[in-house]
Design a protein that fits this description.
Chain B: Residues 227-360 form the Arsenosugar biosynthesis radical SAM protein ArsS-like C-terminal domain. The complex is a heterodimer. Chain A is mostly helical. Helices cover 67% and strands 0% of the residues of chain A. Chain A has a domain at 41-109: AhpD-like (Up-down Bundle). Chain A is built from four helices and no strands. In chain A, α2 (43-56) packs antiparallel against α3 (60-72) and α2 (43-56) crosses α4. The longest helix of chain A has 33 residues, at 77-109. Chain B has one domain: TIM Barrel (Alpha-Beta Barrel). Classes of the chains: A mainly alpha, B alpha/beta.
Chain lengths: 111, 362
């Protein structure tokens, strides 16, 4: 057993989750593969969305995977960093918009 | 001073592994790595076992289509990923005598494509004479692999676009990315601007223009430890960016996988990417690429006339497993009756959509 929660080598073993639940695992990977195909959005655009989300959900495996995926697609580091900022802006916005709730509550409780 | 968490940008190498007396300049050392480690431990399967699963071991040639001649390892650039370990310090140059032997073969071959490579082939002092003579043989597709910057390296090369045009040469050029940063990091400072200028000059004489018979194709190699993306998508991105930013036109983009040999192997090991890269190659193994890998339709000739299954085997000094091993004894029928020499670097040609000097194969 690794003595840390995350081991980069585990990413290679992702496919093994099907071994303990074949049907659900396969359905997931079929869905996953389909999502990232060329569609109304290009596979390149979806790769950048995935990279932004990977940061927001703070998944180290996904960050590794979609940085590499972006490089393979010729995505530049400037594009990657902008995508991360887009994710970060939504994440911080989600925190800050709750400030309105705080303001509402404050006002309601105050004379 | 606080240490940056970002990796230091490494300057492109200035000398070949050979000149640096790096142990990876020894092909035995490279083969030891490719045959040992994760493969010897059984973590990853040997290439021969993988192709045996689909009945392709031993790997055998199909019809010979491409005669690829390496006219020397001297180059004006020292690219970090170079599988030839080429550079200005390499002195291995094909002599006129060996070229004469090659011309005899070119005049009689059944191959439809002649592919001159290097190094920078233009640096061979007999390059122009060789091209003139070879062009007379009337081979269908005559490729010269030009690194672009050579056209701008010295006045004596400025007329190369006209020279190529005169002999109806098909120009295939390396262009790792359509941005300056990525290109210069792999190939050296200033390479991007010179390459752009050279492409514009090739366009000016008609190369790469829509509908033009003067073929200009670009080669894309990933600038790091990752595989190339979809060739068509990359071509679309390159065309859009080069046209919008510089008004440059070209015909096709060949996406070529970097094979784990020579300077690229050195880079993989030094950057601690070797194992991950080999895993990525094996995971991306595509059985349908196997029957079309370039060694099944190519013969590679080295600067000193030895024969190989491909340019990569040439750099690993793995000569053809045939009675005919040298251009002086060339016999196409005998050569075609051989087993192709393979090792774990071959996974580079079967990954994803496959990879060859002509781009994807699957």
């Amino acid at each position: 057993m690794a003595n840390s929660y995350y081991d980069p080598a585990d990413l290679r073993k992702f496919g093994k989750i099907t071994e303990w639940s074949e049907e659900l695992g396969n359905k997931f990977f079929d869905y996953y593969g389909k999502v990232f195909e060329e569609g109304a959005l290009s596979a390149r655009e979806k790769s950048l969305i995935a990279l932004a989300v990977a940061h927001v959900v703070k998944c180290p495996y996904c960050i590794d995977a979609y940085t590499k995926d972006g490089l393979q697609r010729g995505i530049t580091k400037e594009e990657m960093m902008e995508a991360v900022h887009a994710g970060a802006a939504i994440e911080s916005g989600a925190t800050l918009v709750h400030g309105v709730q705080m303001m509402n509550k404050y006002n309601k409780l105050s004379m | 001073m606080e240490q940056s968490i970002l990796p230091q940008i490494k300057k492109a190498a200035k000398k070949s592994l050979k000149a640096r007396e790096n142990e990876l300049a020894e092909t035995n050392k490279q083969l030891e790595i490719l045959n040992g480690g994760i493969f010897a431990d059984g973590e990853l399967p040997y290439f021969k076992d993988k192709i045996a699963e689909i009945g392709h071991f031993p790997l055998r040639p199909n019809k010979l289509e491409i005669l690829q001649i390496n006219v020397g390892y001297m180059c004006n650039q020292v690219c970090e990923h170079c599988h030839v370990d080429a550079g200005p310090d390499r002195k291995e140059i094909m002599t006129r005598e060996t070229m004469e032997l090659c011309l005899e073969v070119i005049r009689n071959t059944g191959a439809h494509t002649l592919d001159l490579t290097g190094g920078a082939p233009e640096m061979n002092p007999n390059f122009r004479w060789f091209v003139e003579e070879a062009a007379k043989a009337g081979i269908q597709d005559f490729i010269v692999r030009s690194n672009l910057t050579i056209i701008r390296a010295n006045k004596k090369y400025y007329d190369l676009p006209e020279f190529f045009k005169k002999h109806n040469v098909h120009v295939v050029s390396s262009m790792p990315h359509y941005t300056r940063g990525k290109t210069d990091k792999q190939r050296g400072d200033g390479v991007f601007d010179k390459s752009i200028k050279a492409l514009q000059e090739l366009n000016a004489v008609g190369y790469g223009m829509p509908g033009s018979d003067l073929r200009l194709d670009l080669v894309y190699n990933p600038s790091g430890a990752f595989l190339p993306g979809d060739q068509m998508a990359m071509e679309r991105d390159f065309k859009k960016a080069l046209d919008e930013d510089f008004g440059i036109q070209f015909h096709n983009l060949f996406a070529i996988t970097n094979l784990p040999i020579s300077r690229f192997l050195d880079y993989l090991i030094a950057s601690d990417n070797y194992e991950d890269y080999m895993y990525a190659l094996v995971e991306a193994y595509n059985p349908s690429a196997v029957s079309n890998v370039m060694c099944t339709n190519t013969i590679s000739v080295s600067w000193d006339g030895w024969l190989y299954d491909c340019d990569f085997n040439q750099m690993l000094e793995l000569k053809v497993a045939s009675k005919v091993k040298h251009i002086k004894d060339y016999n196409e029928d005998l050569l075609n009756d051989r087993n192709i020499v393979i090792s774990q670097h071959c996974y580079g040609c079967t990954a994803g959509a496959g990879s060859s000097c002509q781009g994807t194969v699957a």
